[in-house]
Amino acid sequence: MKPKRDSLLTWVMVALTMTTGLVEAVSFLVLGPVFTAVQTGNMLLMGFALAGVTGLSVAPCLASLVGFTVGTVLASRYESRAQVRGRRWFREALVVEAALLATAAVAAWQIEERGESLTDRHYMVAALVALAMGVRNVSTLRAGVPGMPTTVTTRAFTALIGGSPLALDSHISPGARNEIRRGASVAAMFTGGLLGAWMIRDERLDPAVVLLVIAALVLIVAIGATFLPRESVAEQPPAGPGRWMR
């Protein structure tokens, strides 16, 4: 049962990784430039903006950081309490995330793509999406699927190359199953970004519609998570050396 359970959870994480690409397409191309899920990029953008780089602004980055922080705090407190009470925190967290993304979609209805200046509505939508992504990051961290945090792919890509026949890193777990998982994670992020940019480009779809699509996808994943055995989304112990490379 365990291999099947782990496989199901892995593909849940792949689906969520793809939605991250979609989210960041909206965030970067419409709301900023700003990142709402990948806070590493957000920190860099804020640093560049403070250094005076043209076309970048601190305000959307701050809105994202505040939203992300609030989402992380609330999700951490809620999911910890839910687990103690024996409730299915993973599924419920995904439902909350979908609701927040839907709320952001309503706030973003007919919002203009970023131009010379951003409005308060851009900042509000960025904060709402980042709030949802704060919840997402806590949920996926607690799920503890090695190498699949769903909001970054650098480590998955490193492990993919390091564990391949080209490198044969002895500290990275080999095997086709591990390589497929890592490759799927990287491909999902790329696909999400590509699809999101295509949907927004040339005003094919209103950014609000794209956010609604993302919310619907997350809700579908939440419904699918209902069929996961409770043990597969139990809180994992802190990552030890090499854990992310498995």
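(the above was protein one; protein two follows)
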Amino acid sequence: MKKIFGALLNYFIKGLLIVVPLGAAFLLIFWAVKSIDNALNLSGILLTDAKGKPIYIPGLGILNVLVLILIAGIMVTNVVTDPIKRWFNRWLNRLPLLKFLYSSIKDLTEAFVGEEKKFNEPVIVEVNEFGLKKIGFMVQRDLTKLNLPGDVAVYFPFSYSFAGQVVIISADKVKPIDKSAADMMKFVISGGVSGI
């Protein structure tokens, strides 16, 4: 009986290790999609049934976002000219808080998906005399504008978070890692438990 209970407990733990992360991932994706869809779904405002009650069409909010992003991409690529960009920048400069938020979010987005991805060079940095090393991503090789020749800027993401910190460190303490940036980001974000 003890052997059967031990085997069942072993199977339960192995099942738990598969079901919990998978379930949590699906739940998080479902929550994000549902939240976006509810927030941006205009069907309840635009459509009503014969009794005047709003008609909710699931998925319309996500479709709105996809169409808006696609139209913005087409407009920026084909219609927006340099004078319009300069006008937009002048308008943005008049609103410092909006400019700060817009430029910060834009830079972060471009770092991951832009034409010039910033987090594409994984490095390992020895951070103290005891041999403690951290994995990060080279973001600036030349800091002479900050009067720091010979130093580089390295971004260290935090585990289980998309937050992180930028550290200025001597270039000789930074060594490149011969692995893909995506694998190293996954390794750091997972707290080191994701295989590399």
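Reviewer note on protein two: The helical segments are 2-40, 43-46, 60-78, 82-93, 96-113, 181-189.
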